[in-house]
Amino acid sequence: MKKLDWYILKRYLVTFLFTLMILIPIAIAIDISEKIDKFLYHDDLGFYQILNEYYKNFTIYYANTFMPLAVFIAVILFTSKLSNNTEIVAMTNAKISFTRFLYPYFIGATIVTIIALGMNHFVVPNSSKIRTKFEAKYIDRKTSKDRYVKDFSLQLSDSTYIFVHSFDLKRNQGYFFSSEVYDGL
Fold first, then answer.
1. Residue 156 to residue 148: CA distance in whole angstroms
2. Side-chain half-sphere of 26: how many Cα atoms within 13 Å?
3. In angstroms, what CA-CA distances link 67 with 18, 82, 111, 117, 151?
4. Is 36 exposed, middle or buried (0-12, 13-18, 19+ CB in 10 A)?
5. Fewer CB under 10 Å: which end of the chain, C or N?
6. Would you kindly state where each structural domain of the chain is located, as residue ranges?
7. pLDDT over 70 (residue 177)
8. What is the pLDDT of residue 152?
9. Edge-to-edge, what's the strand order for the sheet holding 173-181?
10. pLDDT (tens digit, 9 = 90+) per residue, 55-89?
11. Which of 65-79, 94-108, 124-138, 149-163 comes out lowest in average pLDDT?
12. What is the structure's pLDDT at 143?
């Protein structure tokens, strides 16, 4: 490979890693906002346990999931940067063919594909076992708070409404029930 190929390949892979490193914290922030109440519900669950057992494996899973998107975004960002710096014009003026120009892209895509396949077949299944075990123990578990529905109201017809202060889903019992029928305005 020539210097130009190494330059394109290095910049392409750096852009790919940068894109992946931008997408993963966004996914983690969204997941934290959804699950923070379930983490706080368990007194025996520590910060390092959440980080080590859940978010390390969450990152591995979603890094593998976001790899195709990161490749797509990296190609667009890197090629537009080359075009903006008029480096593509210089390459075409140097009589470099389009297929020759794409050679480092294909090498980079092959490298990313091999990494993704390796992760998909060896790393992700093992980390998913740990992550799903953690989810089953701390996140998916129904708490006593999930047994009750609070302040429930329902409109049965145009003029009939029912209100239930709390409803026990396990026993199918409601507490503080009231029904109201409105006549006119």
1. 21
2. 7
3. 11, 22, 12, 11, 44
4. exposed
5. C
6. 3-139, 144-181
7. yes
8. 80
9. 148-155, 160-168, 173-181
10. 999 999 999 999 999 999 999 999 999 999 888 88
11. 149-163
12. 53
- C-alpha distances out from residue 107 to 15, 66, 79, 165, Å: 15, 19, 15, 63
**Which two three-digit tokens encode residue 59?**
């990152």
Residue pointed to by tokens 């503080």: 176
Tell me the sheet residues that pair with 151: none
Rg of the chain over all Cα atoms, to the nearest angstrom: 27
Angle (deg, nearest 10), helices 3-41 and 56-84: 140
Q: How many other β-carbons are positioned within 10 Å of the β-carbon of residue 112? A: 20
Question: What residue type is 137 in one-letter code?
Answer: K
Counted residue by residue, the chain has a size of 185
Is residue 77 within 8 A of residue 23, CB to CB? The reply is no
Tokens of 154: 């329902």
Nearest by Cα to 57 from 146, 139, 141, 143: 139
Q: Over the chain, what is the mean pLDDT?
A: 90
Answer yes or no: is pLDDT of 32 > 60.
yes
